[in-house]
Write a structure and sequence with these properties.
- The chain has 117 residues and is mainly alpha-helical.
- It is 62% helix and 12% strand.
- It has one domain: Winged helix-like DNA-binding domain superfamily/Winged helix DNA-binding domain (Arc Repressor Mutant, subunit A, Orthogonal Bundle), CATH 1.10.10.
- A three-stranded antiparallel β-sheet has the order 1-3-2.
- A hairpin with a 2-residue loop joins strand 2 and strand 3.
- The longest helix is centred in the first third of the chain and has 14 residues.
- The protein is elongated, with a radius of gyration of 20 Å.
Length: 117
């Protein structure tokens, strides 16, 4: 015997089904954007990087390499993914490229990362 639950509704609520489908369709782009953000944050290294940028204005790959005790190559790959998603921005100062958090993400990321509830 299976312990899984099965649905045993008596009748279909067509209005609920239709309205729920419309809701998901109208929020399709929003949900896709959120899914990409959560996918990026699901990686522990990227989550640590974002956490650091919430506390420090800007950092270069060397800084992150020292803090995270990792080689620069994998850090650069994570930074590229975050930059491609426009979560991080960068600027060059001479030979050094500094990364920093895109301000439009700061408050939402704070809520996601620092909510201990």
């Amino acid at each position: 015997m299976s312990d899984t639950l099965s649905c045993c509704r008596i009748e279909i609520d067509n209005d609920l089904i239709k309205n729920a489908q419309i809701l998901l369709e109208t929020e399709k782009e929003f949900l896709s954007t959120k899914a990409k953000l959560f996918s990026l944050l699901a990686n522990e290294v990227r989550l640590k990087i974002i956490r650091l940028f919430l506390s420090y204005e800007k950092m270069c790959v060397c800084d992150l390499s020292d803090v995270l005790k990792m080689n620069q190559s994998p850090i650069s790959q994570h930074l590229r993914k975050l930059k491609d998603a426009e979560i991080l921005l960068n600027e060059r100062d001479g030979m050094t490229v500094f990364y920093f958090l895109n301000e439009s993400y700061r408050e939402n990321l704070k809520k996601i990362i620092w909510d201990k509830g």
